[in-house]
Every structure is written in structure tokens, then in C-alpha cells.
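Onboarding guide, step 5: your first structure request.
Type a short instruction followed by the sequence, for example:

Predict the 3D structure of this protein.
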Amino acid sequence: MQPLQAQSLQGVGVLVTRPEQQATPLCRLLESAGALALRLPVIDIRPAADASGLRLAVGAIEAFDLVIFTSANAVRFGSPLLDKRRDVMLAAIGPATARALGEAGYRVAVSPRGGFDSESLLLHPVLAHPAGRRILLIKGTNGRNLLETQLTHRGAQVVVADVYKRELASHSAATLEALEGEFAAGRIQVVTATSVEIAAGLLDIATPALRRDLDRVHWLVPGDRVAQELRERGVSGPILRASTAEDQDLVAAVVRWRSSVSGA
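The system replies with C-alpha cells like these:
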């Protein structure tokens, strides 16, 4: 990927809605390109269960033929289930998850050859005929069940470990009023929504004034599922699509848009 020009996003304000612990790298990258990055974490990520109890429920990790991690958060909260074993076959749903596993010292054997979602992972040859294999699926509570459903349908024995939960973040009336002021001053042109949960959550917490503002800005999303959620929720503003939810790809999508409207 070509490096971002230092001031390619000068004058562009971006509302970053990722959880607090995940927002900093994206904000820094936006700022390095000249953008104003404002933060409003829409969801909080918390551990879902007692680690020791979850470990007992899952059982011996070596009894599984494959362990699938569905997000970087799944790695953050679920990697202790691996018991530091390096001989377990691991799958990652996308590049961010694979990178998180690599940073934790694990090697990923299975990942999508294109895309970064359950549908893409299910196209991998290793998962085409999993009949008789034991698969551990490490995910968040209330997440999509497509992997579990499809792998079970294909004959695999799937064990699910919900290791984290998403909670709607709480924001004071003063915080939301201040955000209304940022919109009114014209300092926000782009709003990020890197997951369906974040998109829905932002619309849920928006005041009537913010809800009107959200129809007047560009939404930055990583794929069709989030875009569909926005349209189904009645959002009429333009949508910018990034190729993935990776920070570089998100910022590149904003740069492309800015270049197109500025004639650069």
C-alpha cells in the first residue's frame, strides 16, 4: 500500500467509534494524514466469563483438531485457553485476528484467502469437509452463529467458547451535547462504523439532533454487512466502503474519497 501523504486529510474531521482500547491506532493514523480524529466509543468490550470456569468447560485444548478465533478480541480474551501450546492448528477470521495471534506468539494455519468474515473463512479448503473433526470456536457472546451452524451442518463437532461480551457504552448528556456542537460547527465529515454492533449502537444512543446529523455525513464501513445495517436502520447519507476493517484500509478509503471530491 502507498504511504499516506502527511496532509491528505487536512480539514477532514472523523468520528472514531471503536472501543476505547482499539481506537488509538486508528486515531493516530488519521491524524498523521492531517485529519481531526474525535472519539466516541460506542461499545465496551469485557470478559464474558470466569477464565478458570471456561477452561474447565472447554476441556483439553489438544483434543481439538482446529481452533477458530473470530476477532482480535477473541484472541485477547481467549488465547489463554491455548495453554501456550504451539502445536494446535489455528484459524483466524481475518488479518487483524491473524496479527493478534502472531503478536501473542502463535502461528495461523487457516485464514480466508479473500475477505475477512465468516463467509470468507468457510470457503477455505480446510473447512470444506470437516466431518468428524472437533472444532473449538472462540468468539464473543451474541455474535453471528454462521460458523457454528455451517460447520455443524458439514459434520464437525463444534464447541463454542464465548470469551467476551459487547456492552453499549454509557455517555452523559453533556458528552452527547458536546458532540452535537462538533457537528454544528462543521468539524465532522466522516463517521466510522467498523461492525454491525457499533453501527446499531451509535444509532441507538444518538439524540434526535445527532440522528439528523448522522444523515448528513459520510459513513466509513468495512463491508456490505455494516452498510446494509445502516440502510435498514434508515440512514440515508453516503457510505464509504473500505476493503477491510484494518486501520490502513479505513484511512485509505477516506483519502480516496477526499481526493475524488477535491479533484486531486
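Each response can be followed by summary notes, for example: The longest strand covers residues 157-168.
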